[in-house]
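anyone seen this seq b4? input:
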Amino acid sequence: MVQVHGSILAYAIGITDIDPIKYNLLFERFLNPERVSMPDFDVDFCYERREEVIDYVCNKYGYDHVSQIITFGTMSARMVIRDVGRALDVPYAQADKLAKMIPNELHITIKKALEQNRELNDLYETDEEIKKLLNIAIALEGMPRQASTHACGIVITKEPVVNYVPLYVNTKDGAITTQYIMTTLEELGLLKMDFLGLRTLTVIQDAINLVKKHKGIDVKFDEDMSDKNVYKLWANGESVGIFQFESQGMTNFMKELKPDSLEDIIAGVSLYRPGPMDQIPRYIKNKLNPEHAEYTHPALEPILNVTYGCMVYQEQVMQIVRDLAGYSLGRADLVRRAMGKKKLDVMAKERQYFIYGKEDENGNIEIPGCIRNGIDEASANKIFDEMAEFAKYAFNKSHAAAYAVVSYRTAYLKAYYKEEFMAATLNSFLGNLEKVPDYIDECKRLHIDILKPDINKSFTKFTVDNGKIRFGLGSIKNVGTAVVDAIVAEREKNGEFESFTNFCERVQNEAVNKKCIESLIKAGAFDSFSRDKKYFNSVI
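predicted toks r here
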């Protein structure tokens, strides 16, 4: 999945899967001649195979032309107090007690904590040793503490990377990164790409593989993404496992909205965030009764009718500026960015251009403006104010469309291949003792039987067995992947285990220890041997 769905070329050659013309995804939102900064090019891959992509890029362009990017961990309020305490030989218990007096809030600082916590402030004022510690901590707070590798950033250069920036070698794992952080690399004009690992893409591919294995079917998603049975899942609140729509708030939103097209899913991804959420009641009301949609001026209807009169996307701001005032899309994107970043001086100039237009030195019209295009001054001013307010939290439609495609595909698999989809979803959280029970509950609601783990039939992951899901050994507590791999390898090499004693004899030299076997017993993995758990425990 690529966050450049506005590119018709990317769609034509199969990089992306959604028609940018049909959904009004503007390429100029990503890149245009008037843009000064480099665009962000984010690519989501199956999270299990992300490293393969990095290896491919290194092989293609040369290992000396590709580098990961450094990032710095900084000293937070609590951390710096403990570090300074260690350096000053303050007893750990005392430094830890001080650190825990810092409120557990986002972006909290020691100075703010002194204002909020009276006990901490009293200690600061009365204890010279603590005052010294906190003063040093305040001076160091926010400074870099350690270097690490950026989670997804990759820089690719025409000449060897070392010709552009200094490099850093991590002494722990030998990884080579740039010494400059991501923003500095962008300022230098270097090409930065984000190779992201997306768990849901792995779920989709695993589900497709399971369908092929057990049903012999090659899954084909409908290209127009209009299947009514798929949209029923959202309308009925059956969104467990559906990408981006699992939260209770999202589920309730979709139940009220009753989506029937991909445009509704794109809007759902965009609206359910702080700021845009205020427009959700209006969007639902106008969706259910389109005749109630209101427009500041009739010229807005062709642009906003797809979202029932609500401004939802950054691209809509660009379309309004282009269609009503005659801007180029490149310049329209600059206006959108100025609004989003609240650049008041730029916005003041652009308001004049938007309403009255702009002429060059020779009197030629560069921007016609709203008035020349038949829109009255009062309406033009009101529209500009609405855009300026909305642009603070407007969402990139191309980004939302990319997520909507992934959401639709997860819903499609759940609608038509529920056993394989739920097995793949369970596998994506293998060993997660919080998430796995939730998805097992969903399987029960879908009337999918969960078969207990079986030492002769289970594998590391959950599998599909005659329309039922077989519990994976890798999800049993205290049973690691390496252990299961050893058990499965022995079973495939020398046949099924004939008894519990036979199992113990055959895996005694492997990584299977007493604690692991006890967990397998308690999970019922040996129940097929027709012995009770007391017998197994006595053998151990």
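The two ends are 50 Å apart (CA to CA). DSSP finds 25 helices and eleven strands in the chain. kinda curious what u guys think
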